[in-house]
Amino acid sequence: MIIILGIIGIIGGLLCAVADLLLDLKGPQNRKLGKMGIIDSEWERMAHWRFVWSDIIAMLAVPMYSCGFIALMMALYNEHPMMATWLSVIFLIGAMGGFMIHTFLCLQPTIYGKIIGKAGQDLAVDVIQSVFRQIYVPFFTLYSMLVIIPAMAVMGLIIGGFIQAPLWCVILNPVVFQLIGLIFRATKLDIFIDAPSCCAASLGLAAYGLLAVICL
10 Å Cβ neighbour count for 109? Predict the structure, then answer.
């Protein structure tokens, strides 16, 4: 069962990476707009179908990549049931938020495009930033529960020997993958402007499934 769930988790993380690329692949010509820097100039030119399919794929990907983390916690459960249970609960709450976050990010370009076409850029920027401020707390709280807290816990469990995996496996999580993606982006090379940074966290979520398989 752990192997099956781990493989599903790997596939789910890869699907989520595809969803991220559909949403965030904009090219070197893109510019950040507004004081908060959450609006992209390329939204005006990106095809609407990309955001539709990004959210549809994420709908499938989120429960699938969750299977990878659950598989890892199943491997931990026999010796540390309380720890595995609590981490599973935290991750699953975060995963629920993960789909909410992705849906919100897919809606932003559509809202921006509709408003800018009829009322101008200033109003579009103001609306997007106001909506983002409205969901700021759940956005970052649930993101932390999905990405940051589980990753830090898993790294600690590997280093402490609670998860029976080689030490190099501390890199198999979304936090490390995201840092690697940001390093690529920091090179300022056009080829790394979007990828792998925009889909690195999803690849890290896929890595939980791989880690679960390695632990067997």
Answer: 22
